[in-house]
Amino acid sequence: MDEGNLSCATHRSPPCPGRAVRLMRLVLALRNLLHDRVSLALVAGGVAVAIMLVHVQLGLFLGFWRMTGAVIDHAGAQLWIAPKGTDSFDDPSNSLAVQRTAVAVIPGVRAVRPLAVGFARWQAPGGDASSVIVVGTTPGSDRALPWSLDRAPRAALDRPDGVVIDRTYQADLGITQAGELAMIEDQRARVTGFSSGIRSFTTAPYVFTRIGRARAILGLGRGAYTYLLVDLVDKAAAGQVKAELERRFPSVEVFTTDEFFALNANKCMFSTGAGAALLGGAILGALVGAAIVGQTIYAGTKEHLRQFATLRALGARSRYIIHIVLLQAALSGLIGYLIALAAGCAVTAATAATAMPVVLSWPLGLLLFLLTLMICLGSAVAATFRVTRIDPMTALTQ
To answer: Could you tell me if 82 and 255 are in contact, meaning their C-beta atoms sit under 8 angstroms apart?
Structure first.
């Protein structure tokens, strides 16, 4: 008896097409799941916990990855000129010895913007001291750095002693409101504005100010800078202009924005071990979840052996029964995934304004969905070996 005749025979109806057979498999899978709701809750809960563990680890990884290169990405330059040996935006090896005007005359260069970056000591009004990363910008960079301000950048930074900090670190820096004074090294600084979402991978927050003020804070000489941001006439010509800059100035590093972003992210995430730890945690979470789900699916399948034996006695093929088991696993996984997705959205919203945001993007959501199916269907494979070897006489003897 084939699958189509079996399905229709059990319902005393005429032979039905393949679509009805597939529907019957789905109905049987749903009935098996709903018959033991405790088992369903255990499987769905196991899937949800496993996917949540993976999401938190991968979400933190993506959040930190974006965080490491956020300033590079928002600066808007096509090319970056950095001191030789620079492998991290936050800690350049030295100040640049290349003249800004010498870069500006290169064919294809539209504008050149200097940037001064370095660590400094912040003295809060209440007396607490901490490290910060000072970023000195030029007026032409107002459209890019800093971003997400509560007021216009020009108004925030035009004061001779004005600085901008992010609200995420407002309490850490001892600032309660705009207009308060602090000391950076031996220079007075007034907080004239707040940004939102500009976080640092290190514990040292970014402090934005004018480049002249940054030079005084960082002890750089007159006209000195640590980076040159190069805007091009034609973005497609970035490779040609980069090659020409490298030829003319062999004593510096020249990066495209993507290259500098990747270099900085790899340095922060993997040289420190943070990236490997987060990825390792995600893998461990997936393995633990797979073990929990596998045990629960296998136990749940064993509880329905008599029903599967009945199907075998009626002439059902092994493929038909395997499809039912796989459908049960997929449906359980879908329920668990939806629970994990709802919890993940809540975690993302709760951590959005913190120094450790957990990201949930649609590619990550798709990856988690595929991982859910892999865990559930993979866990169901062991159960299929058991059900396909059932003796049909079991249905008659129990």
So the answer is: yes
Q: Provide mean pLDDT across the span 313-324.
A: 73
- Token pair 């216009």 is at which residue? 152
Backbone angles phi, psi at 317, to 5 degrees: -75, 160
Q: How many CA atoms lie within 13 A of 48 on its CB side?
A: 16
Query: Which value, in Å, is the radius of gyration of the alpha carbons in the chain?
Result: 30
Is 283 strand, coil or helix? helix
How many Å separate Cα 142 from the centre of its chain? 27
Which residue matches tokens 């629960």?
296
Confidence of residue 111 (pLDDT cuts 50, 70, 90): very high
pLDDT at 253 over 90: yes
pLDDT, tens digit, 9 for 90 and up, residues 144-157 = 788 888 766 567 78
Q: What's the pTM value of the predicted model, to 2 decimals?
A: 0.77
Sign of CA dihedral 370, 374, 380, 385: positive
Q: How many residues does the chain have?
A: 398
Angle between helices 37-68 and 18-35 (to 10 degrees): 100
* 382 neighbors 329 (Cβ within 8 angstroms): no
* Rounded CA separation 223/100 (Å): 10
